[in-house]
Hints:
Belongs to the alpha-IPM synthase/homocitrate synthase family. LeuA type 1 subfamily. This protein has helices at about 25-40, 50-65, 80-85, 105-110, 115-130, 150-160, 175-190, 210-220, 240-250, 265-275, 295-305, 335-340, 350-365, 370-380; strands at about 5-10, 40-45, 70-75, 95-100, 135-140, 165-170, 200-205, 225, 295, 325. It is α/β, with parallel strands linked by helices.
Amino acid sequence: MDNKVYIFDTTLRDGEQVPGCRLNTQQKLTIAKALEELGVDIIEAGFPVSSPGDFEAVSLLAKEIKRPTICGLTRAVQKDIEVAAEALQYAARPRIHTGLGTSDQHVFTKLKMTREQVIEHGVRAVKLAKKYVEDVEFYAEDAGRTDNEYLAQVVEAMIAAGATVVNIPDTTGYCIPEEYGKKIKYLRDNVKNIDKAIISTHCHNDLGMATANSITGVQNGARQIECTINGIGERAGNTSLEEVVMAMKKHNWLDYQTGIQTEKLHSLSNLVSTTMHMPVQPNKAIVGSNAFSHSSGIHQDGVIKNRDNYEIIAPEEVGVSASSIVLTARSGRAALHYKLKGLGFDLETEILNAAYQEFLNMADRISIIENEHLHQLMESMKVKS
Ligand code: KIV
Ligand code: ZN
């Protein structure tokens, strides 16, 4: 099996569904250009039938963004597909992403159909989309809670109808990794002609499992991951692009390849966060402001000796200029010495010990000790640089 894993970014569609994150066309274009430079393979640009603004944005991206595939979402509804096809008409590589719910919960309670009707609707939608574009992705909404045997029937019918990608969304973020992995394996083992389509993961993060589920999906045969920058998206969000990409990069023994230029991750995270008014939590993996800062004495001592002691990612790998040592009341002598040395004060042990006592008193009052505080400390101790 080929080890290329396609990165399908849905920041502009699933990510943009977050209340307050609405983007105008120009903002979508700016982010799409940055995603193209980052190296994503597919950009889901929007849901064209949902509003005139989204139609305009998908049309513009289809014209302007040439390397990645541009994808438009639809329901399994004729009008949606026709409108998406129109929005995508100038794309160099257009994709229509259509589908409907397959879990019993969705089939019987939301769609009020039978299982057979769901398959008929899906097949009709895929065949219609196929009249406009070669590349058609089918999503089995709520696949995470769909019975595997029925899901296999759905997927088989969609591939027979011409789907090039079959998306297995864990829409409600319900699965745990083993369960999701088994689901993908079941499809690989039981669906006729499964090799004619790429299996895609699309995991939500309601139980905090989205990254783990996506990686387990890939280990079981999926070759496309749907994700968003900073993991934004409905409720607890989608799989975070930076997390899955770095997980695969760091575990290179798995030998999965993506085309992502990881040193652009940090700036893209900032762009998305500021444009969408969605602050990134400080302890967010890879792109949080604390992701490369060390504050406890034991860790600081270890990092000063050799940063590999506590850093599995070099900050430059993701576009952060350097990791930082943050001085707090939990910091040790080694960190204080290191920071003072950086400011030109290379203290003998005895003076350092005295400075450390003063520093602790100061740190109990001020939660983070900045360089200006260290200068004040040296001045109060009459130490010259
Ligand atoms: O979560 C989901 O199921 C989706 C589909 C529309 C792909 O976002
Ligand atoms: Zn989703």
